[in-house]
Amino acid sequence: MSEKMSGKKKKYTREKLEKAVDEVKAGASLRATAKKYNIPHTTLQDYKKKKKYSHNPHPNSAPTPSEEEALISFMFWMADHGFPLTRSLVKVLAMGIIKESGRSQSTTVNMEKGPRDVWWARFKARHPELSSRTADSLDRARVHGGTPEAIEGFFKLYEALYVRHRLEDKPHLVYNCDETGFGDKP
């Protein structure tokens, strides 16, 4: 785990930090342990005293785990249907969830600006199944083109061509191909 903090990268893992805290609580020298594990002694001291860095989220800070799961499900559903969500839209949806839950008065989230980028980074860290990509316009076109009406219209056109060129008894003259190798923009 190497996160950026104040322009410097951490050189220790969560496991090393927990091990160092346990050693200090057992009576080891704080500075010696900090040096041994390459952890700033102030960080180790703060964790030892539990003054800072409490990793239990504030109960009203953001969507609850069940609300996050619903949001993830919606995100995947939208992506499967050709409409992947942007980071800013996910943040707007998260804010809407907070408002709908009735926690908007007691939340730590700025209800005018929405969740911060830190929330987004932690949200993605909690859900590694998410990934950021550029949306493919062809996928969206396929979703819209895959309606029953569009498919029925295609086969009506195909049937008319088939009959006009008298191919009913000549299946060996009918070939199949797809769009591979063809650009979708002139």
UniProtKB/TrEMBL annotation:
DNA-binding in keyword set: yes
DNA-binding region location: 30-50
Is DNA-binding there in the keyword field? yes
> Where are the annotated segments for Disordered?
35-66
List the Pfam families hit by this protein, alphabetically.
HTH_psq (PF05225)
Annotated HTH CENPB-type domain ranges read: 55-133
GO molecular function terms attached to this record: DNA binding
Q: Got a GO cellular component term for this one?
A: nucleus
* Record-annotated HTH psq-type domain positions: 1-54
> What subcellular locations does the record give?
Nucleus
Query: Which controlled-vocabulary keywords does the entry list?
Result: DNA-binding, Nucleus
Which PANTHER family does the record associate with it?
Answer: POGO TRANSPOSABLE ELEMENT WITH KRAB DOMAIN (PTHR19303:SF74), TRANSPOSON (PTHR19303)
What is this protein's name? HTH CENPB-type domain-containing protein
- What is the native source organism of this protein? Culter alburnus (Topmouth culter)
Q: What is the lineage of its organism?
A: Eukaryota, Metazoa, Chordata, Craniata, Vertebrata
